[in-house]
Amino acid sequence: MKKYFLFLFSLISFFQGISQEQSEKVVKLIFDEALGSSVAYENLRYLCKETKGRIAGTPQAAAAVEFTRQVLEEMKLDRVFLQEVMVPHWERGNVEYGNISSVLFGSREVPVSALGRSVGTGKEGIFGRVVEVYDFEELEKVGSEKIKGKIVFFNRPLDPTLIQTFSAYGRAANQRTSGPAMAAKYGAIGVLVRSLTHATDNIPHTGVTRYEEGVEKIPAVSISTQGANLLSQWLKKDPDLTFHMITNCRNLPDVMSYNVVGELWGTEYPDEIITIGGHLDAWDTGEGAHDDGAGCIQSIEVLRIFRALGIKPKRTIRAVMFMDEEMGQTGGKKYAELAKINNEKHYTALESDRGAFTPQGFGFGTQGERLEKMIALKKYFLPYGITEFKKGGGGVDIGPLRQFGIPLISYIPDSQRYFYYHHSPKDTFEQVNPRELQMGSAAIAALIYLIDKYDL
Ligand SMILES: [Zn+2]
Fold it and tell me: In 3D, which of 448, 9, 56, 102 has the Cα closest to residue 251?
C-alpha cells in the first residue's frame, strides 16, 4: 500500500514537472512574442498623438473609443462591444493664469493648471491674500477668521523618503481632492494646491477635485512645485502679498460615453470571465501615455499575444478600456453594475494603471490558499527579473468588482519616475520605452495564462 502511494506521488510530481516545464516554455514564448512586436507601441503612439485631450466627455475621448474599438475589431476576436456610460463633461477652457504680487519682491507669474471639475474664476479672476497650510489639521487651527476672503495654499509635498511612491501620492492627494471643499467651509475664495509630483520644476500637475453638496464651489488650481516653493518663501517675508488667478474652465451637462470591451472566449469555462483593463480617458494637458494609454494597450496586447501563439484560454479573457477613471470613475462602476445585472460570473480581474515602466511584479487582492498559489507563480517570472509578488491589489476601475469576492490584481511596474509625468504635460508617448511597455504586456499575459491554466 505504502509503495503504491509512493508510486502515485512520484507520478504526480513527474507530471507536475512536465507541466511546469511546459508552462515555462509558454511564458518564454509570450515574452518573445511581446518583445518582437511593435504593434502595441504603434497603437500607443496613435492613442497619444491622435486622441490627446481625451478626458471624459470630449470628442477626443470619443475618438479614443472608436480607435480602440477598431483595433479590437480588426483582431477578429470572438466579441467586441461597447458599454454605454454617462460621464461628467468638464472643459478646461483656454486661460490659466497665476501671478504673485509682493511689495517686497515685485510681481511674478507662476504656472498653474485648473483642477478637474473646478469652476472658473470669471473674466477678472480672483485676487486675494494667501494663507499657506500643510494639511487639514492646520487649516482648522488657522480657522475661519483668518481664512475668510483669502486664497488657501495647500503646500504639502510628496514625501521623498517613501520608496513606494504611490504611498507618497496617497498621503498628499487629499489636499487636491478635498482641499477646495474644505477651504470653502472656512470662507476661502480660491485654492492653490502644490503639484503632486516628486519633480522640482515649473510644470503644474492637474487632477480631479470634488466639491461637496451644500458647500460653495470655489476655483481651484494646482501650482508647479517651483512656483509653490517661491510663493512659500515670499510669504514668510511678506505675508501680505497677493495672488491673482484666472481660469475659464466649466462644467457642462453629462454626456454619453463608453467602455470598450474585447473578448476571447474560453474553451472550457466560457462563462467565467477574466478582466484585464486600463482606463481610456486621460488628462488633457498631456497625452496620457503612462496614465493610462499604456494600460489600455497592454490589455489589448494580452489578447493579441494569446491569438498569435494560439493559446486557447479555458476561461473568457476580456480586455476592457474603462472610461472616466480620472473625473468620476463612472466606467468602472458601470462595468460592475452591468456584470451584476447580466449575472456574469467573474473569475478574477487585473488592472494596469501604474505606468509603462519595467515590470516588478503583481499585487494580489485575495487571501488564504488562493493568495499563496498566486504568489507561488513568482518562480515563472524570476528569469525576467520580475520578483515582487505580494498581498494586496486592486485598481480604481476594477475596484467595484470587489463585491463579487474575486481576486483583484494590480500590475506593478517600477514606480520611481511615475509621478514626474503623472497628470502633466510631460506624460507623452516619448516618455514610454517600447521594451518596458512590452515587458509589462508579457508579464500580464503570462500571469493570466498561468492563473487560467492552473485554475488559481
Ligand atoms: Zn490612471
Answer: 56
pLDDT, residue 18, reads 81
User: Which among 287, 301, 325, 351 is annotated as catalytic?
Assistant: 325
The grid coordinates of residue 324 equal 472616466
How many separate domains does the chain show?
A: 2
If asked whether residues 257 and 152 sit together in one domain, one would say no
Does residue 13 fall inside a structural domain? no
For residue 369, which amino acid is it? E
CA of 404 to the centre of ligand 1 (A): 23
- Structural domain boundaries, residue 308: 24-90+253-453
Q: Are residues 66 and 176 in the same domain?
A: no
Domain boundary (186, 218, 248) is at 248
Same domain for 223 and 293, yes or no, is: no
176 and 266 inside one domain: no
pLDDT of 343: 98
3-state secondary structure of 379: helix
Rounded to two decimals, what is the model's pTM? 0.95
Give the residue among 215, 147, 220, 227 at the shortest CA–CA distance from 179. Answer: 220
Per-residue pLDDT at 296 exceeds 80: yes
Residues with CB under 5 A from ligand 1 (ion): 291-292, 353
Which sign does the torsion angle of CA 408, 412, 415, 421 carry? negative
The Cα diameter of the chain in Å comes to 95
Question: What is the chain's length?
Answer: 456
CATH number for 207: 3.50.30.30
Task: Name the one residue in this structure whose C-alpha cell is 511689495.
Answer: 103
**Ligand 1: centre distance to CA 160 (Å):** 21
